Amino acid sequence: MASGLVLGDLRVQEIPRAGGGYSYTILWPDGLVDEEADGFLRQFEGRGTQRTYAYFLVDHLRWRVREGLRTEAVKILDLHRYMGAVGATVPMPFGQPWRIPPKRPYGDSALEVLAACLKGFYVHQCSVRGVNGQLLDDLDVRRLPTRADRSRMMLGHVVTSMPANPLKRSRPAKRRHPKMLPEGARPELLGTVRTARDAMAVTWLSDTSLRIGGLTGLHLVDLHLRENADCGECRSPHLHVCHRWGNPNRAAAKIKPQWRMVDGVITGGEIYRASPAMVSSYFAYMTTEYRQWAAGHGMLMIQLVGPRRGEPWSASAARGVLKRAGRRAELPGRIVPKAFRHEFTNNVLDASGGDPFVAKAAGNWASARMVDEVYGHPDLHSPEFGAALEKVWGEER
């Protein structure tokens, strides 16, 4: 969802906020605000959901213009047609595909977010404006609660129904195993990166479950890379990932636990323990490239080339570095930051004997159950796995 300038069409407008961060709305080609979209998006002010929904919604509104539809006339079948046109499997003809090369059809996760966006948008419009009651009724469907629904709710045992989304396709309850790094990726990447900053990025992503937004959003004050730091929250070297709206590189942590600074000491946020290799790569970077080019903004990761050398390094630039390093190392597939997170969690789970609570704590995951569902799988190449099969096959040695 690139945010390039669009002329002669509906477009997303980014608006800087006084307290840091950005708000998002949708404009017509003549510069007028789309009141329907703006009213809906204002519900998510100050949240990353606003940006995500803005880019999904502007694409739908462009399609709606092509189809000659307005909110008052949209039917549930029109929304199913749109879902099919952008990549969903629907049991009906949907007409001309909307996302054509170089754009790719939406994947499963994107279709799930799109379904939530479209339902929220039309329910909001139909309710606030009092129009298209039929569409409102068609979107107001219910389903039976699952065991997981009941366990997440207080007094879940008395719940008889849950809201459902008719635009959302059913997905299997079992989570798909995430894509890992190619075997031996870390040493290969470290052998091809060209700066101490890039080597530090590979090391920190490999030895923690940091997301790329959290890494590029770190400030120097977030780092407590010594024993018994003043925060008193972790005796080992560690770092605090704090969500900030006002970072100049617009990097922000995904998770937003409370944090604060008292007398120059950061407390709270997401805490990640730092390995000796992380500390070593940090000092190699700080005593060379950072010392030479840092611009005094207080952020950790900086640009090393170009006219903005010394300014904060963006998450998109970090992704590009990893992708190019993977190509130089001739690693299969595309190297993406989230693969490091999956690899780290999988390795911790294996090293802890399959204990999901250890992997949850080490990786700052939301729940041990989710870790067990995603990563709790047998190693198909382990001696124990092979021995079990040989015993079943009657070939035990």
Explain what the structure shows.
By secondary structure, the protein is mostly helical. It contains 15 helices and 9 strands. The strands form 4 sheets. The chain has a 3-stranded antiparallel β-sheet with strand order 5-6-9, with no helix packed on it. α8 packs antiparallel against α10. The termini are far apart. The model has no long low-confidence stretch (mean pLDDT 89).
State the strand order across the main sheet. 5-6-9
Question: Span between N and C termini?
Answer: 56 Å
Average residue-wise pLDDT: 89
Helix content estimate: 40-55%
Task: Report the sheet with the most strands, covering strand number, pairing sense and barrel closure.
Answer: 3 strands, antiparallel
User: Into which percentage range does the β-strand content fall?
Assistant: 5-15%
- Structural class by secondary-structure content: mainly alpha
Q: Oligomeric status of the shown chains? A: single chain
Write down the overall geometry.
globular
Number of strands: 9
User: Which spans of ≥5 residues are poorly predicted at pLDDT below 50?
Assistant: none
What count of helical segments does DSSP give? 15
Rg over CA atoms, rounded to whole Å, is 24 Å
Element order: H for helix, E for strand: EEHHHHHEHEHHHEEEEEHHHHHH
Topology (SSEs and partners):
Layout: E1 11-16, E2 22-27, H1 35-41, H2 48-67, H3 76-85, H4 108-129, H5 133-139, E3 141-143, H6 147-152, E4 162-164, H7 185-192, H8 196-207, H9 212-216, E5 223-224, E6 238-241, E7 259-262, E8 265-268, E9 270-273, H10 276-293, H11 315-328, H12 337-351, H13 356-363, H14 368-375, H15 383-392
Antiparallel strand pairs: 1-2, 3-4, 5-6, 6-9, 7-8
